[in-house]
Design brief:
Chain lengths: 177, 877
């Protein structure tokens, strides 16, 4: 993981804390998909280490999710039980999260006060409801079938190759299984 | 009793064995109301190591199991709106209650490092330095890594999957839709931030009225002046080849310039990239006079359906200048100019077969063609974009100096044709939007004038029976002068009502034109005019007054559109020489209805029906004969052509990315009734006299196509199949016989592509074409061609790229085997690419292509570019 290497995430994640649900939106050419997960799918084990993240005392917790072992640091002094990506459900805000291979690292960089309350809007663009498993399958298919998909869009030869090369770089998805 | 004690024993033993202590409790506010969403944290006494936690439910209750040695533990509450309380309790199962006083915590705002992304209202700012990597060159390389932004292969930038609508540098739009040349060349080091303006409405008067779903992108520069650019140079042989491109550019906050010079003789038509048209512009151009009238022509073969760099023998030099100045805060002036000179040569041979019932006529000739093009275009755009109104005026000036020469060789004689096709045009396009009470009214005006004085000379002249009492003669000279004036004014409104949108437009257009022509015959001793029958002095006026209204209804995945255009059209034509003319007026109603429905996620169905009335183009009307090319004499003295057609299109698709199965089906039907037919009198030397006749006839087209593809994960392979069939039936009039024609076209295209290893891509595809022409239900001809193509290329991430292409064409009278190789090496440090290209390795010199019309088949033998090898170096500065 090189510094400055920022992964492009093209999905949207909404968390419905009331119903303990994670709602995920992702686009796989040519379809926009949506799937739901129970928040309880991510089971936390509390760690014993403590540290400081961004001047906040932080506790450690572990979870196994999507084929990766995740380590997170959360701040009990910030009693907002949320975090980056799909993570939430610890007694404090998750300020840092990474997988044990350090392929993916999430770090809080600022806390901002909003002048007025702002709603989080969920796009009403139609999406096809599916399951997490099927979504990952479709994503995996796209990785190896990119040239045909691009062909279907009817672009030239050289451009197909460029797309395929770009796709090669996306060989380490955040969720492996 | 015994039963009870047993139970009690089990409970106690369970608790003792596990050491598990069970805490339950209740949290309330000072009024005694239950509090939910309060964190309950369990710590060992005097420690901050969290043992367990729970969050209170809607009843304010919690329960936690703790497994720890020790006499006591600490239970602490924590929440954003209430005070923190910590209680020490004995380490045994018990109920603990909390009463919390409100205490709103102010979180400290902090920033560890400058946010890579900053949001202010609808504008997102991306700090370029946070996203740039060492290997990046242009700003496009960095943009494609920014969250939510994608760059498509053609350079189109998407934000949240939707193409951006405007591309600005320092708030100025220099290149219009052709922004890829800027984003692909501007080095990222000169850029400080990229701004994405979400829901951006580029027309300011519409800002609070019409919401936009699209975003626009703005580049903010680091320095006040940025001078940059790119270049590449290539050279090769067989014969000497070159390919050069240099594009310097300069950006400041008030003046922006981009120039480019491109030259090559490698078969790349760089003038094409100057004409980028949006679908909207295509629709508007359909009503205007043709871009350049095709009054006189060089008989050129239909182009083969493969890559033009195999046959285009060119020598092009193109200069392109773009400048933008901000005159005042609100007023912008933009100029886009380009000029190119291209010298083209093409050697080919045509075999024309004309079918009549029971007979066919075959003519063969070889053509050596040369064309010299000089084309200049300037576009000046003045725009004012403020809250109160919107104004945009585009003045366009173009000139085309085109000379074509051809040597036509056949059994009878050799003919030299030379054609001068100069063309000059000026047009002005104005658009404004102004408020009118609560509504907006859009006004547009388009005015154009063009002039085409064409000259054709054929040596020796043909049609000697008609033109020179049967005696051969050395030269015929055709002059044609066409002047056209066109003006169109329109006003439009938009009304929205819930799910229904209503958009009426009214407009008026007028077109006036004057066609003058004369045919002269040069015999050995005199030059004389061919006479009245071969001259035109035709004045034409066409008007169109219309009320166009469209209604659209949208509900979820269902859209229904209806268009109800009503128009009043008149055409008046008078020829002073022929003393002929016509006047007609028509009221046309051309309704159309279409729908689109998306269902069950992966299915989509579209359908549409439309009825159209079309009047012929006045350019095609000539009461006197015109020599269109050395072997075609043409007259159109009937009333102007009228066509009424019904058209039905339908489309069904199923596209499932989960199973990777994609399929679609298309069907098109059209039925057109024409009032005219063209009679063709084919002479024994292959010359044609073409005349319009007033004989009503009908043509019918059916077209079906289907395709499906499946990805097989285990083999990393995709298989696909495309099938299409079309049938066109109508009538033809050749050598005094009127007969039915029927053309059928069939195509089968299976293909396989695979990536056996990640860095290697292999593709193989086969195309089978079958073409059949029939006359009066009797098959007159059929042709089968088969194409095999094999493509290999590597997908290494860095440095080296290698590609190989094999094509085999199996045709009735020719086989061709092509092979091409290319290799690219990238040097990061010096930002340089080196490319080696070896095209047409087997030095194939000809290729045959086939075209049909309702009664004729054209077989064209193209002479191709020889094997060639060249090296290209690309750099940025």
């Amino acid at each position: 993981m090189k510094p400055g290497h920022i992964t492009r995430f093209l999905f949207q994640i909404y968390k419905d804390h009331k119903n303990s649900k994670i709602i995920y939106f992702g686009h796989i050419v040519p379809t926009r998909f949506k799937y739901e997960e129970e928040m309880s799918e991510i089971k936390w084990n509390l760690g014993t280490d403590t540290s400081h993240v961004l001047d906040y005392a932080a506790n450690q917790a572990f979870a196994s999710y999507g084929g990766r072992e995740w380590v997170v640091w959360y701040a009990p002094a910030l009693p907002i039980n949320d975090g980056p990506y799909k993570f939430s459900g610890l007694p404090g805000l998750i300020l840092k999260a990474y997988d044990t291979k350090e392929d993916y690292i999430f770090e809080a960089i600022s806390i901002e006060k909003l002048k007025e309350p702002t709603d989080i809007e969920m796009s009403e663009r139609t999406a096809v409801a599916t399951t997490r498993r099927n979504f990952l399958k479709a994503e995996d298919n796209l990785r190896y079938d990119i040239i045909n998909r691009v062909k279907e869009a009817g672009v030239g030869n050289e451009l197909e190759q460029r797309m395929a090369r770009r796709m090669l770089k996306r060989n380490n998805p955040i969720e492996l299984e | 009793m015994r039963y009870f004690s047993t139970c009690l024993f089990f409970f106690l033993s369970a608790a003792i064995l596990s050491g598990q202590v069970h805490y339950t409790g209740q949290v309330e506010n000072l009024k005694g109301e239950a509090l939910d969403n309060i964190n309950i944290l369990i710590y060992p006494a005097n420690s901050e190591m969290l043992l367990a936690f729970d969050v209170t439910d809607e009843k304010g209750e919690f329960q936690v199991d703790v497994n720890i040695k020790g006499d006591s533990i600490d239970i602490q509450t924590s929440s954003i709106h209430y005070e923190k309380q910590r209680k020490r309790v004995a380490n045994h199962t018990q109920h603990v209650s909390f009463k919390l006083a409100p205490d709103v915590k102010q979180l400290e705002a902090f920033t560890v490092r400058a946010a890579a992304i900053d949001r202010r209202g609808d504008t997102l700012s991306f700090m370029v330095s946070s996203f740039a990597l060492e290997k990046d060159r242009s700003i496009e390389d960095v943009i494609r890594r920014m969250p939510g932004i994608e760059v498509e292969p053609g350079g189109t930038i998407l934000y949240q999957g939707i193409p951006i609508q405007k591309f600005y540098v320092e708030g100025l739009d220099l290149m219009g839709g052709r922004y890829a040349i800027v984003s692909g060349n501007l080095p990222h080091g000169n850029v400080s931030t990229i701004e994405i303006m979400e829901n951006h409405q580029p027309v300011r008067i519409l800002e609070d009225r019409i919401s936009s779903q699209q975003a626009s992108l703005n580049i903010k520069l680091k320095r006040h002046v940025s001078i940059t650019g790119q270049g590449n140079m290539g050279a090769g042989f067989a014969p000497l080849l070159w390919d050069a491109n240099i594009t310097p550019m300069m950006f400041t906050k008030s003046i922006q310039l981009l120039a480019s010079y491109q030259a090559n003789n490698t078969g790349k038509d760089v003038s094409k990239q100057m004409r980028v048209l949006t679908p909207e512009e295509f629709a508007r151009m359909a009503e205007r006079p043709s871009e350049k009238p095709g009054l006189l022509n060089q008989p050129t073969p239909g182009l083969p359906d493969f890559n033009e760099n195999r046959y285009l023998d060119n020598n092009i030099h193109l200069v392109n200048l773009n400048g933008l100045i901000k005159l005042t805060q609100d007023l912008e002036l933009r100029a886009n100019l380009y000029f190119y000179n291209d010298y083209r040569q093409q050697e080919s041979a045509i075999k024309r077969t004309f079918y009549t019932p029971g007979d066919s006529l075959v003519f063969e000739e070889s053509i050596q063609g040369r064309e010299n093009i000089n084309y200049l275009q300037g576009e000046f755009t003045l725009s004012r974009n403020v809250k109160k109104n919107f104004l945009k005026n585009v003045l366009n000036v173009k000139g085309d100096w085109n000379n074509q020469h051809g040597l036509f060789v056949n059994d009878v004689e050799d003919v030299r044709q030379s054609l001068k096709k100069p063309f000059k045009a000026i047009s002005n396009d104005l658009k404004s939007i102004n408020p009118m009470r609560n509504h907006l009214i859009e006004f547009s005006s388009y005015i154009s004038y063009d002039y085409s004085p064409f000259e054709l000379s054929a040596k020796p002249g043909r049609f000697e029976d008609i033109l020179n009492e049967g005696n051969t003669y050395p030269q015929s000279l055709q002059n044609v002068d066409l002047q056209r004036f066109y003006a169109k004014h329109a006003a439009g409104f938009v009304f929205n009502h819930g799910k229904i949108t209503y958009t009426p437009r009214v407009g008026f257009s007028i077109r006036k034109q004057l066609l003058e022509s004369a045919l002269n015959v040069l015999t050995t001793d005199t030059l004389f005019n061919a006479g009245k029958a071969f001259a035109n002095d035709l004045e034409g006026t066409q008007t169109r007054t219309y009320l166009q209204s469209g209604v659209e209804y949208r509900d979820g995945g269902f859209t229904l559109r209806a268009s109800l255009p009503l128009s009043w059209q008149t055409i008046k034509m008078d020829d002073a020489i022929q003393e002929k003319g016509q006047f007609m007026e028509r009221l046309f109603f051309d309704p159309g209805l279409s729908f689109a429905l998306k269902f069950k996620g992966f299915w989509q169905i579209n359908g549409g029906w439309s009825f159209n009335n079309r009047l012929g183009d006045m350019d095609g009307q000539n009461y006197g004969f015109i020599l269109r090319d050395y072997r075609s004499l043409n007259q159109n003295a009937t009333p102007i052509s009228e066509t009424q057609s019904h058209r039905w299109v339908s489309y069904l698709s199923y596209k499932n990315p989960i199973t990777s199965f994609f399929s679609s089906f298309n069907y098109l039907f059209s039925n057109s009734r024409h009032n005219l037919i063209y009679s063709n009198a084919v002479y024994t030397d292959g010359s044609i006299v073409r005349q319009a006749l007033l004989i009503p006839n009908t043509s019918i087209i059916h077209s079906v196509s289907a395709q499906a593809s499946q990805f097989i994960r285990k083999m990393r392979m995709s298989i696909a199949l495309k099938v299409s069939y079309s049938n066109q039936a109508g009538k033809a009039f050749v050598n005094d016989a009127l007969y039915k024609t029927d053309n059928q076209f069939f195509q089968l295209n299976p293909s396989i592509s695979m990536q056996p290893v990640q860095w290697l891509n292999l593709e193989y595809n086969v195309k089978l074409y079958y073409l059949q022409t029939a006359i009066e239900a009797m098959k007159s001809n059929d042709i089968t061609t088969l194409t095999h193509q094999f493509v290999l290329y590597t997908l290494f991430r860095e440095k080296h790229q290698f590609g190989f292409n094999l094509e085999y064409y199996d045709q009735p009278s020719n086989n061709a085997f092509f092979a091409d190789l290319n290799y690219r090496y990238s040097i990061k440090k010096t930002k340089t690419d080196i490319e080696l290209v070896w095209n047409n390795i087997f030095n194939v010199d000809k290729y045959v292509s086939y075209q049909t019309s309702s009664f004729a088949l054209y077989e064209t033998r193209f002479y191709l570019r020889p094997a060639q090898f060249y090296v290209k170096v690309g750099f940025r500065f």
